[in-house]
Design brief:
By secondary structure, the protein is of the alpha+beta class. The protein has 2 domains: about 140 residues, Immunoglobulin-like, CATH 2.60.40; about 120 residues, no CATH class. The protein is built from 5 helices and 16 strands. Strands 2, 4, 5, 6, 10 and 11 form a 6-stranded mixed beta sheet that branches. α2 packs across α5. The chain starts with a helix and ends with a helix.
Length: about 260
C-alpha cells in the first residue's frame, strides 16, 4: 500500500498540500508583509526541497492588449525538510514589499485590482507534481508617492488614470515595467494650454526620481502634424530627496510649475 501511495503522490494525487496565508490583504509600498505557509502531508512522507514566495504582477504594452507577468521579489521560506504522512506544519515568513511594487486600484466593473499583484507560492517536492498557491493583495502608495500626486494636483491637475507598462525609452530602472500616472489640467493657467501630464515615479530608500512628459495642446493648421511627430511633447526627469518630498511638498509643486512654464 505504501508503494502505491508513493506512486500516486508522485503524479499529484494524495500529494502534500500547501496554503500561504498573509496577515492582511492591504499593504503599503515598503511595508513588511507577514504570514505563514501551511503544509499538510499527503498519503506518504515527501521531501520538500524548497518553498519560494514570488511577488508577481502584470504589465502591458503601449497600443497593445498584450500582457506579461513578472516577478517583483522572491522570498525563500525554508531549507529542505520531510513532511510526514498527514502531518501539519506551519512556517512563518516576513519580507519587505519593494518600493517599486505597483499601486493597485479596484476596477468597479470587475471588482478586481488593476494591475493585479499577487503572491505565487512555488513548492518543489522531490519526485512529485509541485503544488502551487496564489494569493492576491492590494498595494497602497507610500507617503512619498502620495505627496507627489498631491503636489501635482495643487497646481491645477486632476488624476485621470494609471497603468503598468513596459519601460519607455529613456527611463532607467531594473524592472521590465514602470507605472505611469496620467494627469489632465482641471483648473488654472494650464487648462487650455496642456493636454496632459504623464509622470513615472521611481522611489528608493533615500531619494525619488520623477520622469515626466508634458503634452502641450496643439493649435493651428499644422496641429495634427505636430501631434503625429510628437513635437508637442517635452520629456525630462527630476530627483528629490525623500525628506524634501515628505516635509516640503510645495517644493515639488514649484519645480513642476517651473518645468511647465519653461515649456509653454
Amino acid at each position: 500500500m505504501s508503494i502505491f501511495n508513493k506512486i500516486i503522490a508522485s503524479v499529484g494525487v494524495g500529494s502534500a498540500k500547501v496554503d500561504t496565508k498573509v496577515r492582511k490583504s492591504y499593504f503599503t509600498q515598503g511595508e513588511i508583509l507577514e504570514g505563514v505557509v501551511e503544509i499538510t502531508g499527503g498519503l506518504t512522507a515527501q521531501k520538500i526541497q524548497s518553498i519560494n514566495l514570488n511577488l508577481m504582477t502584470l504589465y502591458g504594452y503601449e497600443d497593445s492588449d498584450r500582457l506579461s507577468s513578472t516577478v517583483i521579489y522572491t522570498h525563500k521560506v525554508n531549507e529542505p525538510f520531510v513532511i510526514q504522512k498527514g502531518e501539519r506544519k506551519e512556517i512563518p515568513f516576513s519580507f519587505r514589499i519593494p518600493l517599486d511594487t505597483p499601486i493597485t486600484m479596484r476596477d468597479p466593473k470587475t471588482n478586481k485590482n488593476v494591475p493585479p499583484v499577487w503572491i505565487d507560492t512555488d513548492v518543489n517536492i522531490l519526485n512529485a507534481v509541485d503544488p502551487s498557491d496564489k494569493d492576491y493583495i492590494s498595494i497602497e502608495p507610500s507617503e512619498v508617492q502620495e505627496n507627489i500626486v498631491e503636489a501635482i494636483k495643487i497646481i491645477g491637475f486632476r488624476f485621470r488614470q494609471m497603468e503598468s507598462q513596459k519601460v519607455p525609452f529613456g527611463i532607467k530602472t531594473k524592472r521590465p515595467f514602470v507605472q505611469q500616472f496620467e494627469f489632465v489640467p482641471s483648473f488654472g493657467r494650464y487648462l487650455n494650454k496642456l493636454d496632459e501630464l504623464e509622470v513615472y515615479i521611481l522611489q528608493d530608500d533615500h531619494e525619488t526620481t520623477i520622469y515626466f512628459e508634458v503634452d502641450k495642446k496643439s493649435k493651428g493648421a499644422f496641429s495634427s502634424i505636430v501631434e503625429k511627430l510628437n513635437l508637442d511633447e517635452h520629456r525630462g526627469s527630476i530627483t528629490f530627496k525623500n525628506d524634501e518630498i515628505l516635509h516640503n511638498r510645495r517644493l515639488v509643486s514649484d519645480r513642476f510649475e517651473q518645468i511647465i512654464e519653461s515649456d509653454l
